[in-house]
Amino acid sequence: MAEITKEDIRKPENLVYKKTELLTDKPLSYCPGCGHGTAHRIVMEVLEEMDIQDKTIGIAPVGCSVLAYEFMNIDMQQAAHGRAPALATAVKRLNPDKFVFTYQGDGDLAAIGTAETIHACNRGENIVIIFINNGIYGMTGGQMAPTTLPGMKSSTSPYGRDVHMMGNPLKMTELVAQLPGTIYVTRQAVHTPANVRKTKKAIRKAFENQKLNKGLSFVEIVSNCNSGWKMNPVQANEWMVENMFPFYPLGDIKVND
């Protein structure tokens, strides 16, 4: 029998790709290089590995995240813009035996949905909030969001965000970590295999917390928006590492075991 070399393993015809059954077969409609697809897969893999897919309800509001129900092969419910935590609260209280999570972007969660986010976290609703932060309104034209960095250009801040005129970026994850109802608050990323593993571990911990009725778990995923940032995917990832991560540092912020 011939010895298998590294070159053989790297050949495309020899690569084995196993897709979780909890992702639909519909091609992803996100921009090439976007982190949403990776985040979707991680969440669905966790649900499959925990064998809770039949007990889980996802809530997707307005923004790029609204497309999640086209790709996640579980029970999903759309919410009005910013209202996902309020809807998730109702779903969980009416179905306490279900696993409930929201999947939200920064324009949704940190702008129109600020009140719903803050109060759900403060009450300690036994849900999981997954927060994709790319520092911009991605779906509607690349406008400045509450998370847009100082000096960062967008379609509504073409010369960069001026904090004296436009205010400071909102660090939602640090903010909700101060609230008594949050049990686990973390910030992760999905741009490298190592970060994907860390993010998957964080999401698994969040759903395990819900299983144990511990309270609200909040998982932020810092991502790119190469279309909104007017960069190719490689440039966007590099810009994210050099600019987003110093302002939004990765790692666990609050862990109450």
UniProtKB/TrEMBL annotation:
InterPro entries: 2-oxoacid:Fd_oxidoreductase, THDP-binding, TPP_enzyme_TPP-bd. GO terms for molecular function: oxidoreductase activity, acting on the aldehyde or oxo group of donors, iron-sulfur protein as acceptor; thiamine pyrophosphate binding. Pfam families: TPP_enzyme_C. The keyword Oxidoreductase applies. GO terms for biological process: cellular respiration; small molecule metabolic process. Keywords: Oxidoreductase, Pyruvate. It comes from the Bacteria. Residues 69-220 form the Thiamine pyrophosphate enzyme TPP-binding domain. CDD domains: TPP_OGFOR. This is Pyruvate:ferredoxin oxidoreductase. It comes from Lentimicrobium saccharophilum.
